[in-house]
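Sample intake sheet
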Amino acid sequence: MYDIIIVGAGTAGLSAAIYTVRAGKSVLVLEASAYGGQIINTPDIENYPGIAHISGFDFATGLYNQAKDLGAEIKFEKVVGIETDGSEKVIKTSQREYRAKAVILATGARNRSLGLPDEKELVGKGISYCATCDGMFYRNRVVAVSGGGNTAIEDAQFLSNYCAKVYVVHRRDKFRADQKEVERLKAKDNVEFILNSNITKLISDDMGLTAIEVTDKNSNDVKNIEVSGLFVAIGQAPDNSSFENLVKLDEKGYIEAGEDLKTGTDGIYTAGDCRTKSVRQLTTAASDGAVAALAACGYIDSL
């Protein structure tokens, strides 16, 4: 029996753990895979107040160690469902059941795929969703990045340092990424932008990806670009289906909650990229974690 169980060990979840432990509550963090969430793949963080430069891995590891050192218990088990039993919450994982007075859902979001035939089969054979994880495998080779947000631009920046050529394919004529970062990427001699275009086919042989088919949205012109690797960075999708019996989800699957981070169920809160919000940044994830933690502590104190 715990005071609070936090589902997810990303920035929001670990920040919530720090605040709940410091409030004197017993806390268990349950994480399906690895701590850190998406930020762990970012090579250089420059937009977190008070920290000029830090890698995503170092940032996440610092949060993880801080939460553990303060007394949070962290277990790597996938949560498959949550039920209510009176004022208690029953959290079911793939291995066992736990009970808590309050729950914070901080499950983050997963990478979106292009939805093309053979995409899943080519993961690890030319298709990747993590440039910092797999980019070094493509040293001195030609690659492409699909996307127009900060992640896509960061991926292209990273890859341009090692790859012979980097194509950036984006379906619009403008980027959602920070303009400063876009301009920095445009200055690279080995980076080429292909705008107003979609990747419509993956071309491969027995060894893996060999080329991508790109279709211009305006002219419908189709061309094949030979690449050894394609890094997909077209956004994220939440994974909240296991909790739809307890919380309301919007049409995209995000947990509906306002800035107080309360869901429609007493004692259940949410934080981070898994909830409805207009800004999804590292700072807002940490802020969500703190707000949800203090709200959950207040709920328990009122019981």
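Comment: The domain at 127-232 is CATH 3.50.50.60 (FAD/NAD(P)-binding domain). The CA atoms of residues 11 and 98 lie 23 Å apart.
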